[in-house]
């Protein structure tokens, strides 16, 4: 996951990504089982709810967002003869999902906790304290 994104932004950008994740999850909850066949309706609704919860907490965000964009694309093609507001709704869902997949989960997600940057502290072998750049001799700098 860290190879996909150079950083997991915090602050206002991270809050914006959190809001985008919640909006995509709410869209998923709203239209989750609408384009499924009647035999798969309950299963599709359950999977949509599971995906929405995982998106809200930020687990596998780019994979789930792209999967949701693919499902929404199928729904758009399946409802091609529907009224224009339905087509616009599916278009916005696809746009939000692709934007979320491209931007990443942000700092306020479990993806950032699992795959985010780490601080590695190198201990000095003799004293057991953390080595700092100021402790090195001048010829090593």
Secondary structure topology:
Elements: H1 11-31, H2 41-57, H3 61-78, H4 84-103, H5 110-115
Helix pairs in contact: 1-2, 1-4, 3-4
Order of helices and strands: HHHHH
Note poorly predicted spans: none
* Largest sheet data: none
Strand content: under 5%
Average pLDDT: 78
Q: Report the C-alpha radius of gyration, rounded.
A: 22 Å
Q: How many β-strand stretches?
A: 0
Number of helical regions: 5
Q: Please tell me what the overall shape is.
A: elongated
Describe the structure.
With 141 residues, the chain is mostly helical. It contains five helices and no strands. The mean pLDDT is 78.
Key attributes of the depicted protein:
single chain; 141 residues; mainly alpha; 5 helices; 0% strand; elongated
Task: Characterize this entry briefly.
It is built from five helices and no strands. It is mostly helical and 141 residues long. The relative contact order is 0.18.
């Amino acid at each position: 996951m860290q190879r996909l994104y150079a950083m997991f932004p915090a602050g206002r950008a991270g809050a914006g990504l959190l809001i985008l994740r919640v909006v995509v999850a709410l869209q998923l909850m709203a239209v989750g089982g609408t384009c499924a066949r009647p035999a798969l309706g309950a299963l599709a609704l359950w999977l949509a709810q599971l995906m929405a919860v995982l998106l809200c907490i930020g687990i596998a965000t780019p994979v789930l967002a792209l999967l949701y964009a693919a499902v929404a694309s199928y729904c758009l093609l399946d409802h091609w003869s529907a009224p224009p507001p339905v087509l616009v709704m599916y278009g916005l869902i696809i746009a939000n999902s692709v934007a979320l997949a491209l931007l990443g989960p942000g700092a306020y997600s479990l993806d950032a906790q699992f795959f985010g940057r780490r601080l590695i502290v190198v201990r000095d072998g003799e004293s057991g304290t953390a080595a700092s750049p100021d402790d090195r001799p001048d010829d090593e700098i």
